Amino acid sequence: MTIVRCRLCATELTETFVDLGMSPLCESYLPADRLDEPETFYPLHVRVCPDCLLVQLPAYVPGEEIFSDYAYFSSYSDSWVAHARRYAETMTEQLGLGPGSLVTEVASNDGYLLRHFVARGVPVLGVEPAANVAAVATGRGVRTEVCFLGAETGAALARRYGRADLVVANNVLAHVPDLVGFVAGLAALLGPSGLLTCEFPHLLRLIERRQYDTIYHEHYQYLSLLTARRALATAGLVVVDVEELSSHGGSLRIHARPATAALEPSSNVKSVLEAEAESGLHTLAGHRGFADAVFDIRRNLVDFLLAARAQGRSVVGYGAPGKGNTLLNHCGVRADLLAYTVDRNPYKQGRFLPGTHIPVHPPERIAEDRPDYVLVLPWNLRSELSAQLDYVRRWGGRLVFPIPHLEVV
Length: 409
Fold this sequence. Notes:
Elements (H helix, E strand, L loop, with lengths): L14 E9 L18 E7 L6 E2 L6 H5 L10 H18 L7 E4 L7 H5 L5 E4 L3 H9 L4 E2 L5 H11 L2 E7 L8 H11 E12 L1 H6 L12 E2 L2 H9 L3 E9 L5 E8 L8 H13 L10 H21 L4 E4 L3 H10 L9 E2 L17 E2 L2 H6 L3 E4 L5 H7 L9 E4 L5 E2 L1
Parallel strand pairs: 4-5, 4-7, 5-6, 7-8, 12-13, 12-15, 13-14, 15-16
Antiparallel strand pairs: 1-2, 2-3, 3-9, 8-11, 10-11, 16-17
């Protein structure tokens, strides 16, 4: 039996957080001519380190295989772009950013965030490993380097472009198998008195709101404030503040600075740590029991889809996010229970979901077919998508949200 060790402290991982069986890569959408070919499924067995308490998925698949050509484009979420615009406005004002400054974003995707700094005359650098996505950013005037961040690449980029006043790492800290090397790269990019902000889904909310579909191979770790602080400390970075956000079902935005420039942590840091401790996240025992909540979600969704099929009701999906593929594969849902799903991203349209082979169509298909139910897979965008799908009620259709519990509205 292979010994799996913690990527943060190298302790042997013997404790299971949740085991979701086998699943394909959640962003590996299939063209029609590959539907009869074999697909590779990998374990989704999440462990928790008994020493440092990092919840993690072993690197069954290297990052280069997942992220070199990627299907996720941030700009297709209106609410996420608005979130990025507000952040850019706030940071520009708070830090006094201008033509002599530098903002560097790691995992900058299609320029969804940095374009707002560009519009304000602030020089930027995007670091994005997916060449197909980076090309879109470059076309928008966002200077972008195509590479994976590590200690060496971070130092090389800093030598070429300078060290940044602000380094941004949104929804990437969970996506790196070499966590220690990645954090070292962040520190290398950051100026001596610079600010680093990192956003990531909060493990506390994942457990509390039963968001198990956010577990997939692209997410190598699931972070609390406690474990994020421990990871950043390996590169001499100190968390000085934290904000609780509603994005992605409940996220943290941590503010960190080099230890030599760090101030006393804010009261927010203490409050979040206390909330984690009260929920049990600062002990190994507090991580147990999540599998029972996962079973309830699967049972309720499958029961609903089977009942709808028996009653002759039509059910289609909205969205083709990675989280939806975890949910559908774990629940064993195929096109006989979910006829198709739709997505605004042209890259996914005309393709099929990995594992389940459910077809992906443009959003207009829903109005054409007038289904009885629309299963909303990106439930984290509930407000935005409820407004977009308001027209479904015209023919008596209803929206279905599977997380944190099955809800038909």
